Amino acid sequence: MANDNPIKLPTYLEVPAIKKNAMAGNGPFKASEDIQNSLGFPGEKVDNWQQVAIDKMAETKSKYRSVQVFLDACVKCGACTDKCHYYLGTADPKNMPVARQDLFRSVYRRHFTFAGKYFPRLVGAKDLDENMLDDWYNYFHQCSQCRRCAVYCPYGIDTAEISMAAREVMNVIGVGQKYPNQILGKVQKIGNNLGMPEPALKDTLEDLEDEIKDETGVDVKLPLDVKDSEVLMVTPSADFFAEPHIDGLIGYAKVFHESGVTWTLSSYASEAANFGMFIGNYDVMRQGALRIRKAAIDLNVRRVIVGECGHAWRVAYSFWNTLTGIGSGGSDEYSLRLQKQLDSNYPQPQHMIEFTYDLIQNNQLSFDKSKNDHRIVTFHDSCNVARGSNMGDIKNGQFILPREVIKAACDNFVEMPKNTIKSSTFCCGGGGGLLTDDLIDLRIKGAKPRMHALKKTEQESGVNTLAAICAICKSQFSKVLPNYDFDPYMIVSVHQLVSDAIVLKESSDNEV
Amino acid sequence: MSLISIFFTFFFYISVLIFIIGVSYKLVQYWNTPAPLKIPIAPASLNTSGVLIRYFREIFLFSSLYKSSKWTWLFGWSFHLALVLLFFRHLPYFWPGEVPLILYKTEVLKYSSYLLFFGLVGLLIRRIFVDRVRYISSPSDYLMLLLLIFIASTGMLMTFGNNHPNMLLVTNFASGLITFQWSELPKEVIFLAHIFPVFFLIAIFPISKLLHAPGIFFSPTFNQVDNARKKRHISDWALNKEEGSKIDLENNDNEKY
């Protein structure tokens, strides 16, 4: 499935000279009135939008220290200018992190600072007019909130925080993006991003059980809504239907089967993804998290485990305890009840990788690594996992654990170049609410730095498998890999590698 | 006292006053603004000592900048290091009364002005010639550098050229500002041209990008401990929101947000 005109990649990653307005445009599709209203936002741009926007900026910077400090602290040193994959892929100067922030900062300066009020030209302060709003809409939807720039900023300025704030302001004045807002409506009504109702989910899981049975001869279960299970598994809904995601789900099922730990999925909370983060809205994000809390209480589980999804893991690991008190340390009624209900021997929530890793450490899983011998595997660190979370509660655990799981299942593992992995990882190009066909040009261009690193690794080590632990990364890579002359099926879930190599206990005799 | 001495004396106090009030205002603002979510950036610290080590590396070594751009790091770090050294070099002037012997030893630090000059010119060249950095620069970004280069140049011309102002007058004027025993300052233009932009920079500190200095300490990506699963982190406004909502444990989907 090679693309007719694959993009030629240079042998080293070039920082392009700026090309003004290279990505000028109208931005992604806007949300309809119904979609906006379903989230409590105005259906169309309000009349006094400028004033509403300025008021919202004032509110946001008074509620988020990050926004206030980041707007003040930038010295325009330029350290971040060549770090964004969208800049490297498009050369549009407004895709340089600092220039993207400056769209917001220039308005902040104009309206909220002495220098900007009285000497706007001197300090680059600008009014929030139609042109500026258009730039906001276009360029804050060319940021995947991957936070690579923040790793390189001497003050830790995180463009994602500014991009979230800007999207929140735009939603409040009635200018929302269709893709995330429509999905958020579905998740609030039905329980997952796909809008997949309980009967369809049930059918899918039963089909998968049959498939595993046919393949291995073992009765591996994918339980749904089973009360009093040990584990509630919350996974991105893409795992239920999309390739290669679904093979990862089969992997989780096999691992649970081998562990003997009872587990269940929930039809009420059948979505780990939380696009509330992408639009920077605390309440919407909290509503998503509350569904999972309710499922945990209703199903009376002892543990909550999250599947392979990058931003979902950031929300779960870093935000769930704040949003819902699902971990420990909270003192409200729910937190106290959950603390009693959930097993305090484990961190809550846990990542599936942590669960599998622990089993491997305790020699509870056996693998036939030869099943993966045809693969030379590299690992793509998904940005939200790499830069916004941890695993195993050890320093850099989020880099160590997935690699250890891969190595337990595969003999051939290689790394991509050092400045493109771990905390310096390049975004797949489709994160942060940009995984939509109306942004396909941006997605292809934004994938360039990652594709370049992969190409180099292919040339040097013959890598033929790209493993990831993020639903968005997997979908994005499936789509853009052919554009760079790669096999679109080379992208796999880490738990697919586990699934292919794991030796199921009851299967040793039945194997064909 | 001459008019010019009165002017500079006033200018100094007003600048310092603006500095103190302005920076205090910003510190209080940053302090009072909650950080509602845990957003430490990798490599995140898992405990408080990790955060302290991180700050040590960022403040004394500019470690993130080093990772980003070796040239910017070289110029920026040289400039800041020289700034600190030259602060100590200037302390004897301001020292009220008997100057401790150790401060006389700071004389040798005058050579760090070359480092200062080197760093600033490097930063300016980078700002002008790197297209990406030029794109993000406002007039104020250039002016700030030019002002600092001007301060460095006048200082170096006085120190290394044959333009020494009367050092006794300098010392009396400077220490007089601290002890409120005001005295005449030397009238050499180069001296006045040296201290005028310094006082000016003190004054604009709280309304300019110089706020990066206090700002770094409040940066949630740096100062937060990565322990969200272990310890609940919540802001007052979020907690109020929760308490304002109806809690019904049996039907918690009916909760109002």
Low-confidence stretches of chain B: 252-257
Rounded Rg of chain B: 24 Å
Q: Report the average pLDDT across residues of chain B.
A: 93
Question: How many beta-strand runs of chain B?
Answer: 0
H/E element order of chain B? HHHHHHHHHHHHH
Strand content of chain B: under 5%
Shape of chain A: globular
Radius of gyration of chain A: 23 Å
The amount of helix of chain B comes to 55-70%
Distance between the termini of chain B: 67 Å
Largest sheet of chain B: none
Instruction: Give me the strand/helix succession of chain A.
Output: HHHHHHHHHHHHEHEHEHHEHEHHHHEHEH
Which strand order does the major sheet of chain A show? Answer: 2-1-3-4
Secondary structure class of chain B reads: mainly alpha
The helix content of chain A is 40-55%
Largest interface: A-B, 88 and 72 residues
Oligomer: heterodimer
Structure report:
The complex is a heterodimer of chains A (512) and B (257). By secondary structure, chain A is mostly helical. In chain A, 48% of the residues lie in helices and 4% in strands. Chain A contains 23 helices and seven strands. In chain A, the strands form two sheets. Chain A has a four-stranded parallel sheet. Chain A has a three-stranded parallel sheet with strand order 5-6-7, sandwiched between helices. The two termini of chain A are 31 Å apart. The model of chain A is unreliable at 508-512 (pLDDT under 50). Chain B is mostly helical. Chain B is 68% helix and 0% strand. Chain B has 13 helices and no strands. In chain B, helix 4 (70-94) packs across helix 6 (112-129) and helix 6 (112-129) runs antiparallel to helix 8. The termini of chain B are far apart. The model of chain B is unreliable at 252-257 (pLDDT under 50). Classes of the chains: A mainly alpha (512), B mainly alpha (257).
How would you summarize the topology of this molecule?
The complex is a heterodimer of chains A (512) and B (257).
Chain A: H1 33-38, H2 49-63, H3 65-73, H4 85-90, H5 97-112, H6 114-118, H7 120-123, H8 130-139, H9 148-152, H10 159-172, H11 178-189, H12 198-216, E1 231-234, H13 245-259, E2 263-265, H14 282-298, E3 303-306, H15 310-324, H16 333-341, E4 350-351, H17 352-361, E5 377-379, H18 383-388, H19 397-409, H20 440-446, H21 448-461, E6 465-468, H22 471-480, E7 491-493, H23 494-501
Parallel strand pairs in A: 1-2, 1-3, 3-4, 5-6, 6-7
Helix pairs in contact in A: 2-3, 2-10, 5-10, 13-23, 14-15, 17-19, 19-23
Chain B: H1 3-32, H2 48-61, H3 63-68, H4 70-94, H5 101-104, H6 112-129, H7 131-136, H8 139-160, H9 167-179, H10 189-204, H11 212-218, H12 220-223, H13 236-244
Helix pairs in contact in B: 1-10, 4-6, 6-8, 8-10
